[in-house]
Amino acid sequence: MYSLRLIPVSFIFVFLFSSARGGDPYFPAAGAGESGMGWSCVMKPGFWSSFHNQALLPFNKSAATGINYHSRFGISELGTKSAALVMPLDKAALGFVYSHFGYRDLARHSAGLACGILLSEKISAGVQADFFAEKTAGEYRERRSLSFEAGIHIKASEQVSLGIHLFNPVPGSFRKDKLPSSVRVGSGIRLSRDLFASAEAEMSTAGGLDIRTGFEYDPFRSFTIRGGFSSGGNSFCFGMGYIVRSVQMDLGFSTHDRLGVSTAVSVIFAFK
Question: How far is it, in rounded angstroms, from Cα 44 to Cα 163?
């Protein structure tokens, strides 16, 4: 039996389906650092690349594992728990990811296996197989679906990089589920040794067009400041990160013009 507290939660859940990546459960919100940059990261290498662009995986030079929790508006039923493992090879890398969104009566689990490879000094590509399991209350209690995603990264110059990512690029006539499709295109520039700026656009069948911008300022080798903006929900974002030996800790915040503030925290352990 539903509690009174879960009734408004269900309405918020439905509302989020019309939002951008930060609210759509088909796109797990992984990486507090990426959250702090407004999710403008399709071209930026990082540990959480399997959730954003698999072509970036080969830039991880050491094996690592990490966990992330994204709390939407302080409501536990709308939280996302994510975990990942990255294993670098010679000129390639493997990624294993898992994510859980929702609560007991309305939840979605997703898992993925990814591979990224350096094709040349300036071009890398990656692909990932995805599995989704959705549980809802009612007549149809559980649904499962398979899909894939792929991306490419281009190093245009020493300072400029480009990223393109496709999620579920399957023609509608071949689909047997309601998985959305999306395409992300973005560019980043290294303005100085300490400052990186990025901008990207995403078109999704679940949420329309979303424009994102972000920056990352690294005044010290171990401390990072981030900021960004996403047009989905008019979301202003900021965050920070700190590295202690082989442990990286990140904290990110994002606002929504109607629903309030979301918080993300992640911890990454590198095995050097």
Answer: 8
